[in-house]
Design brief:
Belongs to the bacterial solute-binding protein 5 family. The protein is α+β, with helices and mostly antiparallel strands. The protein has 16 helices and 21 strands. The chain is globular. The N terminus is likely disordered.
Length: about 525
Amino acid sequence: MSINRRHFNQLLLLGGAGLVFGGIPSWAGAAETPVSGGTLNWAYYPDPTALIAINTSSGTGQAIGPKINEGLLDFDYDLNPTPFLATSWSVSDDGLRYSFALRKGVKWHDGKDFTSEDVKFTIFRLKEAHPRGRITFQNVTSVETPDPLTAIIVLSKPAPYLISALGSSESPIVPKHVYETFKPTEQPTLAQTIGTGPFILKEWVPGSHLIFDRNPDYWDAPKPYLDRVVLRVILDPAARAAALETGEIDIGANPVPLSDVERLKANSNLVVDTTTYAYSGPQQQLFFNYENEILTKKDVRLAIAHAIDLQKLVDIALFGYGQVSPSPISTALPKWYDPSIKAREPDPKLANKLLDDAGYPRGANGTRFKLRLAYNPFLQTSYADFIKQSLAAVGIDAEILQLDLATFLKTVYTDRTWDLVIESLSNTFDPTLGVQRAYWSKNFKIGLVFSNASHYSNPEVDAVLEAAATEPDEAKRRQLWYKFQHIVHDDVVSVDLVAAGAQIVANKRVKNFAPGAQGINNSFGQIWLSPNA
């Protein structure tokens, strides 16, 4: 049987996406004895503005924070929970009480004891300030602390996804005695950035680097194996590729232009990991700003959808590293994705007619109207270039806003000075956490990043989302998510684009860099450097 390029690319992604529900990444070989010592050089972009994912779902917080602040649980590749700050746990038969036995002898980096009061404070801080935490913990009524090493989360309604949300990159536990001294919307200063994790943040020079030193009092001795981690901010993708090839840098996530991936795969000194880890749920979307009168018209939104050829977006802009994902729920979550949702056919003729009928004829210069197109700087610029060209073909002038991460977040979620935005709102491991935030009317709040950017409001959608969030029966919950997908797709609330493949590139001397479901967004406590590679 012959396999064409399109089929090959789909199989390539599906091979990785299959690991959402189980398996071990291909780079993981036979177990070796870890060696202690050495410095790991980590290439990173964009320039981080938030380090701890206590009030942000930004990729910077998810990637950097777990080195400092840990969650109650960790997860294997199949998303099975394993002990971390909690050593054991139980759930009541009615699903309303989650009891955790906390690890003894754990210290914060400043020497104070970690206790159940820290867990209680953190859960309510996440509920108030975190874009997904507002949903994850929405039904938490109290956190009981009968003793320093017992925490009991009490709910008013079931939360079938709650256990899976307790990883370090999603729900990091923070020290109450530090975080209660500043507002929920604020991030800690360098001196306040303390945790229980394997590394202590020693230096942060914005635009340049972060330095993490080994925590000598870490509870899980002899970890961490590394003496130091140096995060180097390298904004130029060509420079990141060169640094990896020369050995100046040891590891990076999505570090190089997609056009360079095949070349790096051929480098005998490097490992290129294309696994889709269970915590990621990749999904890239085009959202409309409903505060722009033009975009409140369904025919305009539908025209934009028909103007974009999603398969060409994958093949051309992403070099095949992705899969068309036409529903609000990513194809990487087959348990919840409704396969009856199909991508709209690219049809410039129909798009032109819809725009004419909506009352926006072409002007003398061939342009109907102008829209400001923002894009998440974590994404390749090729997304914006491709969509700009697609819209130009039907008479829409899309002005690309070139923004760094901090400016992007302010422009989209605070100032709201945009019309279209290409986002990368991960579905995570469950749609209640990753999807609901973008469509739930109660999650629109000025300044709340990675939330309901469109300012979309639909009482029927709200009701379905809220029911799905508390339905303990998996089959019934799936039907609710199917209903949600049809409503949103039929109303063209967003143009759901692709589930983009991800790449971790590492020097072969870097061992055990992604030991579980969180991928590279783990603590780095298990990473070690082989002297023989």
